[in-house]
Amino acid sequence: EAGVAQSPRYKIIEKRQSVAFWCNPISGHATLYWYQQILGQGPKLLIQFQNNGVVDDSQLPKDRFSAERLKGVDSTLKIQPAKLEDSAVYLCASSLVRTANTEAFFGQGTRLTVV
Amino acid sequence: GDSVTQMEGPVTLSEEAFLTINCTYTATGYPSLFWYVQYPGEGLQLLLKATKADDKGSNKGFEATYRKETTSFHLEKGSVQVSDSAVYFCALGANRDDKIIFGKGTRLHILP
User: Fold this and answer.
1) CB A45 within 8 A of CB A61
2) Could you tell me if A111 and A11 are in contact, meaning their C-beta atoms sit under 8 angstroms apart?
3) Which of B31, B93, B102 has its CB closest to that of A43?
């Protein structure tokens, strides 16, 4: 079974530039999560999708971050414009059903450095 | 709101030592509890889970018991190996809104 795919693995941009990350979840997984993991901290949930609808985006900085999930499969997370404090690893995860009892499978993440 | 607190690292042990990583939680209702592990250069992966009080999750020699009375889910292993060196995250799954909330992580170093 293929895992969660993310790209790119690494990205370096200047502040005020824009950047986009892509995630392809495990086939058939209805729930998709984007997490932000700042160095030395645990992952923080940014947005949660159920199929192509947003379930929770309460911690997404909507003035600069946006996310979409096309046709309930792939997802993109965009930052525009980037700030220095956005430097982090961005993790995508998916799970089979919308329940916190179900294991979430994580991609390897995209490491973003904003200079 | 719901939260997870785990012991700060790094934790450094010799091979074959006994390991405990403490984790406590605050949650409304009855969450599920997880331990995730992140090996160097790899993504997060589920190590074990428990979905109700007194359940014991186990995998790869690691164990953790869901203790409702102490709101804890401590990770233990009787004899650690160098290959267990990684960052360990305690997490809770909030049944109310399906969020998975992580602790800050504990880095474990095992010396040969």
Assistant:
1) no
2) yes
3) B102
Closest alpha carbon to B93 in A112, A95, A24: A95
CA distance from start to end of chain B: 41
The alpha-carbon gap from A72 to the nearest alpha carbon of chain B, in Å, equals 18
Q: Give the gap in angstroms from C-alpha B53 to the nearest C-alpha of chain A.
A: 13
Inter-chain CB proximity A101 and B42 less than 8 Å: no
> Which chain B positions have a beta carbon within 8 Å of A43's beta carbon?
44, 89, 102
Specify the 3-state DSSP secondary structure of A72. helix
Side chain identity at residue A83, one-letter code: K
Chain B hits for A108, Cβ within 8 Å:
42-43
Find out whether B60 and B112 touch, Cβ atoms under 8 Å. no
pLDDT per position as a tens digit, B33-43: 999 999 988 88
What does residue B83 show for φ and ψ, rounded to 5 degrees?
A: -70, -10
Q: What is the pLDDT of residues B54-85, one digit of tens each?
A: 999 999 999 999 999 999 999 999 999 999 99
> Where is B76: in which H helix or E strand?
strand B75-77
Residue A102 is predicted with a pLDDT of: 72
